[in-house]
Amino acid sequence: MMQRLAVFALAVMTLAAVPYALKAADADALCPLGNATLVGTYMVIGTGYIVGVGPVTSVGVATYDGKGNVVNTFTRSVNGTISTGSVTGVYTVNSDCTSPLTQSNGTHYDRVVAPDGSRFNWIETDTGTIVSGTALQLGHE
After folding, report:
1. What is the pLDDT of residue 14?
2. What pTM did the predictor assign?
3. Strand (E) positions, the chain?
4. Which of 3, 55, 79, 120 has most Cβ atoms within 10 angstroms of its Cβ?
């Protein structure tokens, strides 16, 4: 019985300390605003290569709502063929400023966001692509 009481007391003390530990971790966060780090419209440019297809380059604007949603409108050249389009996506900004993005067309990206949200660098993580670029928030040129 005494052993159960000791285990119970230890569990209660551990759970009581969790909010303080989480608060301390947030204080050290590079991007403490999470998804709200990215809000507004960004100029986006990317270049690279699609294996078996050829070179690719794109330019466009991406509008972030600060809640994990983005609309990306772009013009691109894939091996010399020009196209335009618009896709939606969902993103997360982690406390260390890393930020995965998945777009509605099935493409995936890893990004690193500036703590003030003014810019980010990105790389596509889909097999067969060697594409990366930069985005700059309008108004922070």
Report:
1. 46
2. 0.79
3. 39-50, 54-65, 69-78, 81-91, 98-103, 108-113, 119-124, 129-137
4. 120
**DSSP, res 47:** E
Look at residues 141, 109, 101, 102 and name the one whose alpha carbon lies nearest to residue 125.
Answer: 109
Please tell me the total number of residues recorded for the chain in this structure.
141
Per-residue tokens: 36: 């709200």
82 plus 19 within the same structural domain: no
Torsions phi, psi for 93 (to 5 deg): -105, 115
Q: Report pLDDT for 13.
A: 46
- Helix (H) / strand (E) containing 116: none
| Residue range of the domain that includes 59 | 34-137
Q: How many domains does the chain have?
A: 2
Collect all residues with Cβ–Cβ distance below 8 Å to 29 and sequence separation of at least 6.
95, 96
State which amino acid sits at residue 85.
Answer: G
What is the 8-class DSSP label of residue 126? S
Rounded to 10 degrees, the C-alpha dihedral 125/89/116/42 comes to 100
pLDDT at 28: 82
